[in-house]
Amino acid sequence: MATKKNGDKPAETTAGDPVATAPASAAPLAAPATVATPMAAMKPAGEAPAAAAASAGGGDGGGQGDAGGRSAGSGGSGSTPAGDAPPLCGIPEDLRSRLADAEQLLSYVLLTKPAVEPAAGGAAAVSDATIETIRRFAALVEQAKDGPIPVNRIIGFDRAYRDLASVAAPVTARSLRATRLEDDSGARRSVLRLWLEVPAFTQSLRLWGWTLALSALAIYSNMIFATHEPVIKGNLDPENYLLAFLQNITPFLYGGIGACLYLLRSLHTYISDRSFDELRVPEYNNRILLGVVGGGAIVMLVDQVTTEDGTAIQLSAAALGFLAGYSSDFLFNTVERITAAILPKVGIDSVRRRDAAAAPPAPMGTMTLADLRDWSKELTEKLQSAKTDDEKQTYRALLNAIARRLAG
Question: In Å, what is the CA distance from 66 to each residue of 17, 83, 176, 300?
């Protein structure tokens, strides 16, 4: 029988503990206290913030984090293995600017687009998931300050921003800034500040200047023509030389005026629907130069316009220049028609036909009746396949001559 030594303390037990039911003699065989230590206490301290960030980042991107640490982004980035937290990264330099653009564009879309999904064929509406993703990501970035955030949250935001941009097109965050009437403080800009600070209004002011300058030159040219004698060929007097110069540049002036009017009309639409893109300003400037050159070039190619019913409309050089400047398609279509009518005919086949035509044709008086009928049949087929009025007129004249010869 074991005797109890002085100083020995009785073992502390709890209800349900197997050690509590063991006899006193088995107390030395009990497991050490370290065996009962919870596993959570053995995890490194750095894993707790990661797990918290993972659980915070699972729901806003379209997925939810579970107790095991799994999370899924709204962009469908998938879930991480059980027990692993999503990767973290610092906030990129351009992320805050993209977030500001997304919030600005979202505010515009919510004010201008329908709040519910439209019927088939109607305008697109921003989805609730896109709104929630952008708003929650903005709150996360604000809370994180400069700290790391889950990568799947950034991916989800980028995809939501992409969907928002497709709904708002052709309006973008850049076009909203280029047409904004208020400054950063929310105060409405004055007219002078609009012209100097807002890109859309600055471009409009430039177009005003070009239009007024070209119009003033055109008015001056018309006044000179109205008060002076017509141009005299071969006369090198300064006055006659000035008249000849103004007469030649008139189509160029009206071509530039037509281009400026087209751009002013388009710019009015871009400003009203807030789709003006300042990256296209060089394109607008090139359009003015194209109108000036096209206005002078069209005069060398055509002197009248033919309607759909074949009616020929005689136009002045200034009118043709204005049309070419206002509609660049008018110039390009004219050049393509002339090119298609001339260049394909200049080749080996045309040279052979020219050599064959160099031989003097047989006089009509020496042709037999059968030859005249065959020739008449051939000319009739060519008349039916002729495309231009000149060709048709030529074939008709030849057929009339054959008819007179047969009648005689």
Answer: 32, 10, 40, 77
CB atoms near residue 148 (< 10 Å)? 14
Q: Give dist(CA 99, CA 107) in Å, integer.
A: 12
The type of residue at 43 is K
Can you read off the two tokens belonging to residue 61? 């991107």
Residues 71 and 84: their CA atoms lie apart, in Å, by 9
Digit-coded pLDDT (tens) for 245-287:
888 899 999 999 999 999 999 999 999 999 999 999 999 999 9
Residue for token digits 């020929």?
312
Give yes or no for a contact between 260 and 249, defined as CB atoms under 8 angstroms apart: no
What sign has the CA pseudo-torsion 12, 18, 23, 28?
Answer: negative
The predicted-structure confidence for 102-128, as pLDDT tens digits, reads as follows 999 999 999 887 554 544 444 567 899
Q: What is the 3-state secondary structure (H, E, C) of the chain?
A: CCCCCCCCCCCCCCCCCHHHHCCHHHHHHCCCHHHHCCHHHHCCCCHHHHHHHHHHHCCCCCCCCCCCCCCECCCCCCECCCCCCCCEECCCCCHHHHHHHHHHHHHHHHHHCCCCCCCCCCCCCCCHHHHHHHHHHHHHHHHHCCCCEEHHHHHHHHHHHHHHHHHHCCCCHHHHHHCCCECCCCCECCHHHHHHHCHHHHHHHHHHHHHHHHHHHHHHHHHHHHHCCCCCCCCCCHHHHHHHHHHHHHHHHHHHHHHHHHHHHHHHHHHHCCCCCHHHHHHHHHHHHHHHHHHHHHHHHCCEEECCCCCEEECCHHHHHHHHHHCHHHHHHHHHHHHHHHHHHCCHHHHHHHHHHHCCCCCHHHCCHHHHHHHHHHHHHHHHHCCCHHHHHHHHHHHHHHHHHHHC
Q: What pTM was estimated for this model as a whole?
A: 0.59
Decide: 199 and 205 in contact? Cβ < 8 Å. no
